[in-house]
Amino acid sequence: MANDTYQLNVIAAVAEEYCENILHFQTSASSSSTPAADALAVITQFRAAIEPLWTACLSTDWQLGGYKCKRINNTGGPTAIAPVAGVVGGYGTGSVASGIGPLITATYYDAAAVKPRWRDGRIFMTGAPAGSCVGNVWQAAMIAAINNLTAIMIAPLGGALTPQYVVWTKHTGLAKIPVSMQLSAKVGTQRRRYVPVF
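and the corresponding structure tokens:
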């Protein structure tokens, strides 16, 4: 049976606008009988290893609200919730817009596809900090911050469960371990953020 895969929701706000990143981590356990405790462990390990590097890529008006985590395969599991206060983005400037931001690609080989090929998972970092992108070109400080983040994210985290970041393919229910992660040269956008409320 496949190792347990957990969905980790990073819940935050940028310029007081709700935003959420949904990440997936595969652990070294398979069909664990303690999915609630394991979900909390994934949160703890993410906070220790990745959170400081994650926030370093984000604007000062980005504020973390907390985390939700649950096992999504091997019968699932309850949702662990961890509210967080006082954690803000550390890039050093406020956001210029919430609809654009750094886009991280996670490259993996999809051998199970009808036509096997290389694919990319994507992580959109909400709210580009002012000065991080000039003329649609990411500046050195943002490139360095993303490189620091992806260097840690691509390797298994510490702890007993050794969570590994994966790209979860919902239609097949399979976790794909990326072979590389990098900042996309293309500025990421979320077009739904540009649609008027009314």
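(Above: one complete record from the training split.) Residues 25 and 147 are 19 Å apart (CA to CA).
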